[in-house]
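USER: Study each token:
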Amino acid sequence: MPVAAQGEETRTEGGRAGGVLEALRASPLPRVRWGLILVWFLRLMAVLWMMMGLLAWADILGLTPSPVPFEDRGLGAQAVVVYFAVFNLVAAVGLWLTSTWGGIMWLLALMSHMIMAIFLPQVVASGVFTVAMFGVLAVLYLVISWLAAHDQE
């Protein structure tokens, strides 16, 4: 391979060596597949919400350490636990199927948890971090969904 003096172009058998760099610069960047990212996000949320639903059922059945057993709680607190035990599992199945109704059910479950945690902290014990994280997840879902809907195939 010839060595070029300063200011000279180095030539190879296929053309200029700089041509490869120019071709790399001119090639488009790999396209982000937002639809695939949305599917992975929904599946991850489905696993998390399935665990939350199963934890609620474990609480109902007395399998979790709790200062107050489920049957000794007030009727309102019991209703909230049963609501999330059912609703979280339904939302998880819908998310796993990546269906539209699954996203809606998940947003309803997420928002109802946030609202109850803010306005009824004695019934739904969640910290500020959990409420903030749920808000971030909701915004992230909406952004990824919007990007996936506007993704050019």
Observations:
- Residues 34-60 form the longest helix (27 residues).
- The chain has five helices and two strands.
- The chain has one domain: 34-149.
